[in-house]
Amino acid sequence: MSRIEKPADSDPARNALRTGKPTLKTIAEITGLAITTVSRALGNAPQISETTRRRVHEVAAEIGYLPDRAAQRLKTGRTNVVSVLLDPHEEILGFGTSIMHGLARALQGTAYHLIVTPNFLDGSNVDAVNYIIRNGMADGLIFSRTEPFDPRVRLLLENGFPFVTHGRTEFSIPHAFVDYDNFAFAYAATRRLIVKGRRKVTIILPPRRLTFYQHMLHGFMTAVREAGAAYEIPEALDLDSPADMIRDYVRRRSAEPDPPDGFACPGEVSALATITGMSDRGLSLGGEYDIVAKQTSRLLSQIQPKVETIYEDLTAAGEAMGRLLLKRIGGEPIEDLTILQSPQLSFPTP
Amino acid sequence: MSRIEKPADSDPARNALRTGKPTLKTIAEITGLAITTVSRALGNAPQISETTRRRVHEVAAEIGYLPDRAAQRLKTGRTNVVSVLLDPHEEILGFGTSIMHGLARALQGTAYHLIVTPNFLDGSNVDAVNYIIRNGMADGLIFSRTEPFDPRVRLLLENGFPFVTHGRTEFSIPHAFVDYDNFAFAYAATRRLIVKGRRKVTIILPPRRLTFYQHMLHGFMTAVREAGAAYEIPEALDLDSPADMIRDYVRRRSAEPDPPDGFACPGEVSALATITGMSDRGLSLGGEYDIVAKQTSRLLSQIQPKVETIYEDLTAAGEAMGRLLLKRIGGEPIEDLTILQSPQLSFPTP
DNA sequence: GAGCCAATTTAAAACGTTGTAAATTTGCGG
DNA sequence: CCGCAAATTTACAACGTTTTAAATTGGCTC
After folding, report:
1. Does A66 touch chain B (CB under 8 A)?
2. In this structure, are B241 and B269 located in the same domain?
3. In whole angstroms, what is the distance from residue B342 CA to residue B339 CA?
4. B54-100 pLDDT, tens digit each
5. DSSP, res A49
6. What is the pTM of this model?
7. Considering the domain boundaries, does residue A113 fall inside one?
8. Residues B153 and B251 in one domain
């Protein structure tokens, strides 16, 4: 344990300062230990004596050592990276923001970095997934807007690559997911409109290919049937339609016979577009018609307090997804790696 | 060039398939060349014969070789990564989206990956910059919302780290930037309101600490003074204020004596909030008051076509920033690495 | 103090790539 | 067919880390 025979000359330390990059070697030279030992000590390996463990940690902290991620990655094959696949559609109005907020929180304090892979690259989302798998760009993947037989999910399952989706699928093999109970949302929203005495309700549904289209439709229809209420469902329109298309549709429809006067809007943009379309006809929110909207940011209720909203806490979803993914990467079995969020009545307190 | 003596047994290829990861070694074994040669050939080094160069490329393509980024990074010290620092404030309503779209386009076809470092991590943006520099997490950095003496810029300049900002600073040392001519925007917007015959104009300014606060103020004041128009500037409010605060302010102010009837809104959220605040008082856009807004997405004009808008093409800005950064990383001098975008009258065609 | 086990430390190899320097082949004049 | 330069290919050593297997130390018993 004598650390005097090696003069521990100040070269390494000074050197580390000059090149700005202390490595295990630097610490080894300073402490007079072997590189292996230093590595072990920092990794809190069991066979290292408490004294050296402490000393190594001290020195490491002192010279500001940070492990070289490239080297770790090369050696271990693990990237310590979690990647989020962002779909253009979910980026508007801060979907990405909230989810990523939660993810960042879940990854806080772990060795994992969060990397956003924007989907714009070129082709479909599947290409991006393929690229990430084959290039070993990440240890785990997170994405949303699943389809019942989502090709990304299939690809990941086939390759045994850890992932968590936001949204369910209908594969027989289970996988980790976090989802919002859109059935419950649609049911509650429609119910509220009916209870308010609205004559005829309608809903703007997600694109048909997405899994939650069915959930949403089912919730809406259940509420409608229970109450024996009148309803209609716009065919040429979905949640991804541009705002002007939604606005124009609402405006046009409201001038035709027997228009709906209760709108379930599972998105803030669609709610705003609906308001504008109706007010173009001189119809006023809360007067001639009502809206119950799903709200994922504070924006809508801030601007238009008269819109009734039901919250989806995307930050919580992100945090949950992050935690599930870490477990999944750690090799935990899929069971219990699924979460269904219930709709919330008030804005989540951060 | 005979490639028969080494039986080129199918082991390496099969092996590569099994582990899923062809390396230089795999190609070397298949072609019977040395690893170094393969590396050279793929790098299109001059001293490689055309025949082997071609052959190596063929094989590489065939087995789907992709260089291991971790190894490259470890060896060369270059990460081939460009990082975007996202500030929470710019993420709402797709700022991040548009800029990243442009960035992705600029990086298309290069070896560079785009990585988004969300700022939520914990502390200030400066910490994130520091972390990236010290950890060598990227070869270049992009961020926005600069202050006149932005600490991030100072840090990066001190370390000679390549970066491009969205927004200018007042440092004496020049640096690469892309900025929007906010003076021109504010001037034009105010001018339009005055020309429309508005009695009293106002503007919602950015937070004081940001560089473009001055530009914006200056443009507004220039138009006001030229025309000798009446004006006012809300003190307790800025572009980052929550929408309800802006809405409430507008509503309150419009009930007091001598309220403004021309609003320059350098942001879409502030424009929406203003509309709501005014319509709560029964005042109608284009009638009792007008708005000229800065528009960075298609959302606002889709929902409210009556708002006059002046466009800022953030996608183009992103693309420009990407290109500048690549040049900067390549060691080009700063001169000519600055771009000032002019306001645009119509939505940019993609 | 020899012998032995456990505790602790170490040397050496490897991950996949690139840079340096040296080796091999080729072409060509004599 | 030798010699010699140019053209082409090669071996070897890194980059910083972890892993495997081996070496060293210390503490004990006899």
Report:
1. yes
2. yes
3. 10
4. 999 999 999 999 999 999 999 999 999 999 988 766 655 555 678 88
5. -
6. 0.87
7. yes
8. no
